[in-house]
Design a protein that fits this description.
Helices cover 40% and strands 19% of the residues. The protein is α/β, with parallel strands linked by helices. The strands form four sheets. The protein has a six-stranded mixed β-sheet, with helices on both faces. Strands 2-1-4-5 form a four-stranded antiparallel β-sheet, with helices on one face. It has a two-stranded antiparallel ribbon with strand order 11-12. A hairpin with a 4-residue loop joins strand 1 and strand 2. The longest helix has 42 residues.
């Protein structure tokens, strides 16, 4: 069922490597009560955490029903812990604001069991550990022994194959410890229980198998086991962990309502953050809109003008550059250069014509979409308008002006 093959666990610190487990080889029966004894720091809890999937081994292999866990992913470990393992801790790990019944139901909630069956199973296991009359109390209203019974009931409610108990009687008095051990012994009739303890007397009295650990190695095993001749029962407990959305929302709401002060402060702080971000975005959009308006107004003041004839200034400037190496001038002589004539000749040669008629047709068509990028389009035509002024002595032509013609 469960086999550890040369399991090693190292903890790496900045200065050294601590070897917690040094090659553990052990097999467990399907149903037995195993007690792991040893001094503090010998690796008992580390071994228990590796068996329960709470910690990962450095090397070796943990084999479950002849299936290696070397390639297990996080989801596989979650399924293993939720359906194959039940945990009983020394400090109980109960949720204080939930009732006894809700604490036990939680394991079933994570498995996706419906509310009716959840409650039924939870009440059954609480009755089994003698707490049927305490189901509506909160954990802080119970004694230490009663809280440990709730923890045992929570571990049993999912019907796991393996129960892991880490010092389950460490915080209890002698009488209560005996009661808890009796419950665990009864459970071990059809389940595997692995218990870590410092109390050899309890181990001798209740455990069916004792394993001694020292410095990360097994020094003694009172009842070794080899599973080579066993036949698998074919039961598959590797169901996927699931929870309905509605159940998750109910749990979240219940948790929020039990901590109203913290919830209100968190909501207030969150609202300040959201309002701040909204104000920054609004200010940013307003500034950007203002910049866009300024750009449009500026471009409107300096419109783009296209004329029928124009001079390409780049070609003009490049063409009038003087090549000093082209003409050789002798010393002590004066040479003239007709700059103006050359410039006028160059300007006349660089004049280019634009087909404004075709351009006008294009911008007025639907193909150009130019209206999406302009505020106004205006046209001017080369018309020589004849304007005359009636004076006292005669009619004078004002446009085109004829003053210059009279002077010639």
């Amino acid at each position: 069922m469960l086999k550890l093959k040369n399991i090693k666990k190292n903890y790496v610190t900045s200065n050294e490597v601590v070897k917690a487990l040094k090659g553990i080889n052990i097999e467990f029966r399907k149903s037995e009560f195993v007690a792991i004894l040893g001094p503090s720091g010998c690796g008992k809890t580390t071994l228990l955490n590796i068996i329960g999937g709470l910690d990962k081994y450095t090397s070796g292999d943990l084999v479950i029903d002849d299936v290696s866990t070397k390639k297990y992913k996080d989801r596989d470990w979650d399924t293993y812990r939720n359906h194959r393992i039940g945990f009983v801790f020394q400090n109980y790990n109960l949720i204080t604001h939930q009732s006894v019944l809700a604490n036990v139901e939680l394991a079933l909630t994570l498995s996706g069991v419906d509310k009716k069956n959840r409650r039924k199973k939870a009440i059954q296991v609480l009755e089994k550990v003698g707490l049927k009359d305490q189901i509506h109390k909160k954990p802080n209203q119970l004694s230490g022994g009663q809280m440990q019974r709730v923890a045992i009931a929570r571990a049993l409610v999912n019907d796991p194959d393996i129960i892991l108990a880490d010092e389950p009687t460490g915080a209890l008095d002698t009488k209560t410890s005996v009661q808890i051990m009796e419950i665990l012994k009864d459970i071990s009739k059809d389940k595997l229980i692995i218990m870590v303890t410092h109390n050899p007397d309890l181990a001798e009295k209740y455990a069916t198998r004792i394993i001694n650990l020292l410095d990360g190695e097994i020094t003694n095993d009172t009842k070794p086991y080899n599973s080579k001749n066993d036949i698998k029962d074919g039961v598959d407990n590797n169901k996927k962990t699931s929870m309905s959305f509605l159940t998750a929302m109910n749990l979240s709401l219940n948790n929020l309502m039990t901590k109203k002060g913290r919830t209100l402060l968190t909501a207030f702080a969150g609202s300040i953050g959201i309002i701040g971000i909204a104000l920054i975005l609004a200010l940013s959009n307003g500034v950007q809109e203002y910049i866009n308006n300024v750009e449009e107004e500026t471009l409107t003041s300096y419109p783009i003008t296209i004329q029928e004839e124009a001079v390409e200034m780049t070609d003009l400037i490049s063409s009038i550059k003087t090549d000093n190496n082209k003409t050789i001038h002798e010393d002590n002589k004066i040479y003239s250069n007709d700059v103006m004539s050359e410039m006028m000749s160059t300007m006349s040669s660089k004049v280019k014509s634009n087909n404004l008629e075709e351009f006008k047709k294009y911008i007025e068509s639907d193909e150009s979409n130019i209206t999406d990028y302009t505020s106004a389009i205006s046209y001017s035509y080369n018309l020589n308008i004849q304007i005359y002024k009636d004076s006292d002595s005669d009619v004078v032509q004002v446009n085109p002006n004829t003053v210059l013609d009279d002077c010639l």
